[in-house]
Amino acid sequence: MNLLRRVRVRFAPSPTGPLHIGGVRTALYNYLFAKKHHGDFILRIEDTDQNRMVAGAEQYIIESLKWVGISPNEGVGFGDGTHAPYRQSERKDSYRQYAEKLIESGFAYYAFDSEEDLDRLRTDNANAKYDSTTRLNLKNSLTCSPEVVAEKLAAHEPYVIRLKIPADEEVIFNDEIRGTVTVNTNEMDDKVLLKSDGMPTYHLANVCDDYVMQISHVIRGEEWLPSAPLHVLLYRYLGWEGVMPKFAHLPLLLKPDGNGKLSKRDGDRLGFPVFPLQWTDPKTNEMSSGYKQNGYLPEAVINMLAFLGWNPGGTQEIYSLDQLIEAFTIERISHGGAKFDAEKAKWFNHEYIKACSNETIANLVAPIVQEKFGNIDSSYLIAVVGLIKDRMVLINDINAFGYLFGATETYLEANLAKVSGVREIFNADVFEATLKALTTFDGANVEIAFKEFAAAQNIKTGDLMKFLRVSLVGELSGPAIHDLVVLFGIDQSLIRIRNCFQQL
Ligand code: GLU
């Protein structure tokens, strides 16, 4: 292994549906590793299985990566690098030569079997595979004479090219997370490399592209571990073993109870998104919510995902993207699956919202506010955010603060009953005069004015506060009352207070 090799990693999704957050995590770990080592992060679209492609999925992947802010420096949708095109369907013609090279060197062969032939193989023995024990009973270039093979090829008979897996050999390779992995070739089958339509399979395209694109590390989900021995053999037989990338197979993202892989259904059932962005299935029109639309900040999602299966050690949990890059190492990726924790996701978001400037959050809530409450002055919105930011877990929580954008007209009987004790003793005119007498109208002075008013009018401060709160916001909890009065201004506050008072 060339230790001075430039770090080049790739995220290589197949656009068969929306990118799951597990996929975003895979992309993130690749990104962090690349940036940490001043290398390249590539987005390659693996769309060789055209039957499984889903309209809009590729665009969704690109937009998701953009939203979370981990842009590849080469790849589909992110500008051309020296290895364009990065969509495998556009590289189709490049793969055949490698499959043919393997045939020439005796590591692969043509197989002409029909579907029925293959069904028969399995009818005789349900566990039968196309391998060293069965291939000599099937229709391929190992069992047909060279003349017959030439005839079949000349007659354009459909064929696939299969890798000739040897019997009873140990394939040993190192996984950067799991250590040495050993698989006996008897457990493998003669995988198809080139399909009858001339398209490569995932295995051939993936290995050839990793080689051609000079990928140094393959960081991908654990579900691809069973394919790795086959890939190792491909590197060996193609004469590329010396530049074979290092492999790191990431632990699974598990359901909150740890019982299996996290799925879309878990999200629906437990009320959290499993996709970064909202997705509408083009066939069924079924809509799935996304972190963005649910009011998460991309920085919080990234921080949360980074910690699902990796941690830098220590107690600090809030890491910016730059800090994650600095701290990231493959050694600290956990070996076991990581349980998804919806509450932790919210905790991260809350922390990020609190740490953002009021202006930033105001910009994010503005479209929601505009749609629900109409045009709101931006400086007012910034002031609103200043009051409620610490209570917001999601950006969409702004919806719960409608009273900050319009006065409560009618009050809940139960709330009125709780404050009706002030009916005989609260004097709205005196209250107005007290506020208007203030030379400096700010939270601290308004709070003092409340206390002075309560003392002068002989109202218990607690009773006064409860009445003011209900009259200002219609509820028994919310931001500090003096802050609300400053936010609304004296006139608007008095309208609300007098209105409530009349209803007591
Ligand atoms: N196309 C594979 C996927 O959809 C890529 C696996 C790999 O990274 O090798 O995940």
Q: What attributes characterize this protein structure?
A:
single chain; elongated; binds glutamic acid; Arc Repressor Mutant, subunit A; Rossmann fold; three-stranded parallel sheet; Glutamyl-tRNA Synthetase, domain 3; 504 residues
Characterization of the model:
- There is one protein chain.
- The chain has 504 residues and is mainly α.
- It has 3 domains: 1-75 and 251-355, 3-Layer(aba) Sandwich (Rossmann fold); 92-203, Glutamyl-tRNA Synthetase, domain 3; 413-503, Arc Repressor Mutant, subunit A (Orthogonal Bundle), CATH 1.10.10.
- Helix content is 41%, strand content 10%.
- The strands form 6 sheets. The chain has a 3-stranded parallel β-sheet.
- The relative contact order is 0.09.
- The model has no long low-confidence stretch (mean pLDDT 95).
- Residues 12-14, 46, 202, 206, 218, 220, 224 line the site of glutamic acid (GLU).
Summarize the structure.
By secondary structure, the chain is mainly alpha-helical. It has 18 helices and 14 strands. β9, α7 and β10 form a beta-alpha-beta unit.
